[in-house]
């Protein structure tokens, strides 16, 4: 898991 | 994007608008913690660094700009606006920034996904957001008599966090490999901090009365 998977979240 | 995420974002947006409305129209920031607002400004400034490097969607970019712009303008209003700043409860809002910022930064240096500037700052912004509400909760506890707009602001912020948790549960079951311990634990801690406030908020709604926290 990395930050890129949740980069769409604010 | 799922319905919980959207509802969460809109609640977050509403909380900021309620706060700006209070400050702009009533020209008062009574009961609002400058410390919390400054911490949020730091949170958004460190988290949204990717604004200039990665494009995700128009929605994402706009929301980031709104949260950055609103947090910095709220800080500006409380510190610089010649009328608003007079209503600031300086003597009650005594929380020290570095008690919060420093541990969060150390934690981000220890626990992160990758040891790069961007990832460490991102982890830092998540840890800091989790506890940024503390000065505001302490201030509410001290002032006790909370005006409706301040109460609604804190309620909407708490609701936004709770909706994000539902969003993660939804994503966990619908997206493969959706496991994010750093985001989840800091989000959970953040939501739990509101538990006490929520309790009194709903009590006051049930009794149709004014929100008042116990001494």
Automatic annotation (TrEMBL), chain B:
Membrane topology: Multi-pass membrane protein
Keywords for this protein: Endoplasmic reticulum, ER-Golgi transport, Membrane, Protein transport, Receptor, Transmembrane, Transmembrane helix, Transport
The organism's place on the tree of life at top rank: Eukaryota
Any one GO molecular-function label of the UniProt entry: ER retention sequence binding
Transmembrane portions of the chain: 55-78, 98-115, 121-140, 152-170, 182-202
Main location: endoplasmic reticulum
Location in or out of the cell: Endoplasmic reticulum membrane
Family annotation (InterPro entries): ER_ret_rcpt
GO cellular component, one term: endoplasmic reticulum membrane
GO term, biological process aspect, one: vesicle-mediated transport
Classification via PANTHER family: ER LUMEN PROTEIN RETAINING RECEPTOR
UniProt similarity note: Belongs to the ERD2 family.
Protein name per UniProt: ER lumen protein-retaining receptor
Organism of provenance: Dorcoceras hygrometricum
Lineage: Eukaryota, Viridiplantae, Streptophyta, Embryophyta, Tracheophyta
